[in-house]
Amino acid sequence: MPVVAVVGGQWGDEGKGKIVDMLAEKSDVVVRFSGGDNAGHTVVNPLGQFALKLVPCGIFYPQVTCIIGNGVAINPAVLLEEMDMLQERGIDLSHLYISDRAHLIMPYHTFLDGLEEESRGGRAIGTTRKGIGPVFSDKIARLGIRAGDLLDRETFRERLSHLLEHKNDIISRVFGAEPLSLDDVFRQYCEYGERLAQYIKETTLMIAEAIDNKGKVLMEGAQGMLLDPDFGTYPFATSSSPLAGEASIGAGFGPTRIDQVIGVFKAFCSRVGAGPFPTELEDDTGDLIRERGHEYGTVTGRPRRCGWFDAVAARFSQRVNGCTGLAITRLDILDVLPRLKICVSYELDGQTVNNFPASVTALARCQPVYEELPGWQTPTSDIREFGQLPAEAQQYVTRIEELLSCPVDVISVGSAREQTIVRRDIM
Ligand code: GDP
Ligand code: IMO
Ligand code: MG
Is the pLDDT confidence value at 180 over 90? Predict the structure, then answer.
């Protein structure tokens, strides 16, 4: 029985939320395994439209165990707000669990994320300012506080007191800002701890049991491969790994247990924040895609930069993730375009480049080499079978399949759960 990882193949916002919501119907367990509330996963189902930041997108099915894994950094204030919102909208949370090993975003993390961005000036990364860089740095530097720590107040206060002294030094001496009060932070986090205590568990055993009992486990990725700190457009990256390999580490089971990796790709490209983007369209076509696709950040509301599908980047992403199948989303956004382009290689200093470069300086100088394909100029949102798509749309999808050497299992033609063409059952 499968363990399936669903991961973003581009710069995030590929439509992972939609695909996870759809696949969760047949799952026993859904686990978020990386990122934090920098993620915004949109789900449109019969219960309404939801933008989830931390709660797994399987939450709408009461029979599905939903786990926020150890690989996720949790801002408890944001999580509680999200939980309140879901409960107010009638969603049952009794099947939600939080790993006791998940790191917590503290007030100094969000504060420092903002201060660090300001200090970068023209070199700013364009982070979501949710404290992601600082919290994952602290995790690796062994300076973190974890969800389980909230359950033991005495130890928590002692650790917080020591850490806050160090953080306040940075806040006041490096940035000249007001230090944070130990009593205030402690009191606030104790309140969060009281509310979250019933959800905080040892979650690796729950996952192991599901796998051993031949359950269906769906791993929900956040962000996208091109934001990975190792393989993405570093330093214009995020601070946790969005890769399929992280599904095992961010949830606590062996990599040999992952059966399938579904890479989610938009039918075009988008990016929020700074960093090179070879196929970016700074013209009317880019504006048209942005407006038709409402390409504005779920988390920050920032306009997303839009461009043509980049098969060089996508091929790299497919390979590093080890995708067994692809989900192509937002095909319908391209319905109106008379002609489409796919970037098949780059040109750099007169040389053809087929592999995604490690250096952002090199990438910024790469010129996309395009292949042109005819558009279909027909609405596709009501189509549910591949054979019913206009021939040009089939050709477009088939070309992506060829360029990435990977089958397209799912095609999404609208934000709603049912607006999907399934070519192969995944769960
Ligand atoms: P995620 O972060 O990968 O979950 O993606 P986001 O939710 O941030 O952004 C994807 C946006 O596209 C959301 O507004 C979805 O509702 C929407 N969406 C997903 N799939 C489709 C699709 O096939 N067509 C259209 N028109 N919208 C889609
Ligand atoms: P989902 O899961 C799109 C981007 C930010 C910024 C960079 C670093 O919804 O696909 P960070 O706050 O993580 O330190 O910012 O990463 N970024 C995302 N872009 N979708 C996301 O998540 C993102 N999470 C982070 O815009 O460029
Ligand atoms: Mg998103």
Answer: yes
